[in-house]
Amino acid sequence: MPAPIRLRELIRTIRTARTQAEEREMIQKECAAIRSSFREEDNTYRCRNVAKLLYMHMLGYPAHFGQLECLKLIASQKFTDKRIGYLGAMLLLDERQDVHLLMTNCIKNDLNHSTQFVQGLALCTLGCMGSSEMCRDLAGEVEKLLKTSNSYLRKKAALCAVHVIRKVPELMEMFLPATKNLLNEKNHGVLHTSVVLLTEMCERSPDMLAHFRKNEKLVPQLVRILKNLIMSGYSPEHDVSGISDPFLQVRILRLLRILGRNDDDSSEAMNDILAQVATNTETSKNVGNAILYETVLTIMDIKSESGLRVLAINILGRFLLNNDKNIRYVALTSLLKTVQTDHNAVQRHRSTIVDCLKDLDVSIKRRAMELSFALVNGNNIRGMMKELLYFLDSCEPEFKADCASGIFLAAEKYAPSKRWHIDTIMRVLTTAGSYVRDDAVPNLIQLITNSVEIHAYTVQRLYKAILGDYSQQPLVQVAAWCIGEYGDLLVSGQCEEEEPIQVTEDEVLDILESVLISNMSTSVTRGYALTAIMKLSTRFTCTVNRIKKVVSIYGSSIDVELQQRAVEYNALFKKYDHMRSALLERMPVMEKVTTNGPTEIVQTNGETEPAPLETKPPPSVPQPSSQANDLLDLLGGNDITPVIPTAPTSKPGSAGGELLDLLGDINLTGAPAAAPAPASVPQISQPPFLLDGLSSQPLFNDIASGIPSITAYSKNGLKIEFTFERSNTNPSVTVITIQASNSTELDMTDFVFQAAVPKTFQLQLLSPSSSIVPAFNTGTITQVIKVLNPQKQQLRMRIKLTYNHKGSAMQDLAEVNNFPPQSWQ
After folding, report:
1. Pair type for strands 640-641 and 749-758
2. Alpha carbon separation from 731 to 735, 785, 825 (Å, rounded)
3. Angstrom distance (rounded) from CA 569 to CA 580
4. What 3-state DSSP class applies to 815?
5. One-character DSSP codes across 272-331
6. What does R_g of the chain's alpha carbons equal in angstroms?
7. Could you say which of 24, 288, 420, 450 is the most buried, measured as most Cβ atoms within 10 Å of its Cβ?
8. E-strand stretches of 577-709
9. Mean of the pLDDT values across residues 74-103?
10. Helix (H, G, I), strand (E, B), or coil: what is residue 213?
């Protein structure tokens, strides 16, 4: 049989292939020749054939048929055969295949070989693909080589020990005696691998971490090594861009970070050396920047001095001026992590951070945007909002939703005045109205309603904003609502804040009718407009007949929602005209249940209005029956009551055309007589026990006096807190507001919170403010739970949490039994 071609010739031949099919043909032909050679047990060219097979494997072609041949080469006495055999084993074998166990004895023999290079091959292979069984069998040999005086073997044995510890953590103590003298070695390769081994041991075992801190005095040794690296002169063997062994420096800094975390003594011992590294490292090359970045992370993670932390933040500030995009990105990410603890120090670099909003790189823009929102406070709110609104005007569409949401939250928290607050939100709606959250409209309506002194100014601004432009639907919805409420102020021209405009009643109706017929208007927007026209029948005097015609036209609309509204409004004109002015009177001042995040709005007349004119229930409200049944077993036994959904319930229409049909499905069970509620906004039905009739007092206490909040869940970076309020109208009702926060570095998406209580209670879950829990505690999800406890029994609850995090679906159950007595007694 002729000798097979060499590897070099095979590579040259394959590279001449012009098409993928031609390359496959060459590979298949060569694989057939290699198989024939393997069958004939050709020992002369086995090494050459396996080498060619490994090259084909690197190109992505199957090479599994060469696994046993690799084992034969490992068993050979020739070093060249062993080298190719071990390389093939690392590439073609892994612990999922039983074949790898056949090489355990060969590796053991080679670990005791007289040639250090053969021992090195065995250590590399074991450290690369050794299974837990192999690691248990060969750990003794690795530990023995870790104590040898040969630096070539010690560095390889240290890395192999790292793999053994990862596979079999209980073998960690076996390597503890061998680590005592590792840091006294002068060879940088041994030092590097030793630090890697010590880092692995400290990360995996708190006991080992405490041992190295107290008994081994590891921190002083590492400080000494790091100081020698900084102060040593030029060494061509270890020099990289003028810095002595930056790889070892980075590894030592990472280990110091682990040792100094939450430990005062260790942190104190390394403060000086960290300051030296931060001030003496050259920043003109990327190597120096890598060391400085690790130094900053270490300073921020240990209990360092305040001056050192300021120095670290100033280093990150210099990074923001670097031309390298990667350096700017890591600087922004690091500042975002530290802004909560060192807010004032980060504020000094605010102008540089804002400049990063203009960067062309989208990842830098996003980090700069997140950091800018984190820097907003009561002192800089006007300047920061000006920059962020400019960014909102010019940024890509994928940024607009997050930017608008952040502006809303910041304005709500730090607004210097109500007029500024309203102007800011209107600017956002004008710029990015299609990207705002669903709760933006009811939140702005609530804000406008409460700003009694600037109603005329607001309605005039909104009227001018939508003249001829209906593209921003949330803006049109707010404008329609305000024109319906305060149309009389618009026509009277009573605006004092700016020059009033002269508008007639017919011009106002023209705008609203244009909204109704516009192709850009959604069903919800048309509902706002039709209701606004109806409300104007009590505010205008000369156009009532025109309003009647418009309303009657939509009584036959193909849109069921518009048709229902129009029919009910027609009934008001024809049968209940004497009630119309009372039913359509101006809305009272609204009060928010909670101040953090989008929640329902509670009116002072006792009605609940989650979202004005919202005809569709939130997507997270309807729970499939199977999902509700999943909660029935949460507390054990059969005494569980399922969650009461908040979606509207269908009700047969009565033939009499009663007044209650105008108000929607409002349950007046056992309610005393009350003044008719305004029909300007359809109400979403609530379970009877939560309403107890319509009263003139607030439905819930504004302040949960004397009821402490609790932490119901804290695990894997997710934290759930409960705050409590008691109902004024029904003392048996407890209102629990949950706040979910996320301290990890990635957002938690598709977040769903479910709860179950015993049958002696009734429970209602309202829709959450969002389904995404932002990372780094930069925001929260809020959700309201209402619990009826007529028997005043101790409250128990089982909660179920489902979300996606880091690409994995997470699910967890927990029991909450630590409710404060004030919440249920």
Report:
1. antiparallel
2. 10, 15, 10
3. 9
4. strand
5. HHHHHHHHHS--SSHHHHHHHHHHHHHHHHTT--HHHHHHHHHHHHHHTT-S-HHHHHHH
6. 36
7. 288
8. 590-592, 601-603, 608-609, 640-641
9. 85
10. helix
Where do we find the tokens 């025109």?
Answer: 546
DSSP 65: G
Three-class SS string for 340-405?
CCCHHHHHCCHHHHHHHHHCCCHHHHHHHHHHHHHHCCCCCHHHHHHHHHHHHHHCCHHHHHHHHH
**CA–CA dist 412, 444 (Å, integer):** 10
Q: Are 707 and 805 in contact (CB under 8 A)?
A: no
Residue 552 amino acid letter: S
8 alpha-carbon distance from chain centroid: 51
Distances, alpha carbon 648 to alpha carbons 511, 618, 651, 657, 786, in Å: 31, 11, 9, 20, 17
Using pLDDT thresholds of 50, 70 and 90, give the confidence band for residue 119.
very high
Q: Which residue has the higher pLDDT, 278 or 660?
A: 278
Residue 48's alpha-carbon distances to 8, 51, 120, 514, in angstroms, are 10, 5, 22, 82
pLDDT of 769-821, one tens digit each? 888 999 888 888 999 999 988 888 888 899 999 999 988 889 999 999 888 88
Tokens 């869940």 belong to which residue? 713
Task: Please check whether residue 524 is in contact with residue 494, taking contact to mean a CB–CB distance below 8 angstroms.
Answer: no
Q: How far is CA 758 from the centre of its chain?
A: 33
CA torsion 393-395-398-403 (nearest 10°) is -60
The letter for the amino acid at 20 is Q
pTM of the model: 0.61
Asked whether 345 and 322 are in contact (CB, 8 A), the reply is no
- Give backbone dihedrals phi and psi of 608, rounded to 5 degrees, phi first: -105, 135
Residues above pLDDT 70, as percent of the chain: 85
Residues in the chain: 825
pLDDT digits (tens, 9 = 90+) for 745-772: 888 999 999 999 998 888 888 889 888 9
| Average pLDDT score over residue span 633-638 | 44
- Token pair recorded at residue 380: 């800089």
Both tokens assigned to 11: 């590579």
Least Cα distance to 120 among 145, 138, 94, 85 occurs for 145
SS3 state at 674: coil
* Letter string b/e over residues 384-422, b meaning 16 or more CB atoms within 10 A of that residue's CB: bbebbbebbeebeeebbebbbbbbbbbbbebbeebbebb
Q: What are residue 581's phi and psi, to 5 degrees? A: -65, -35
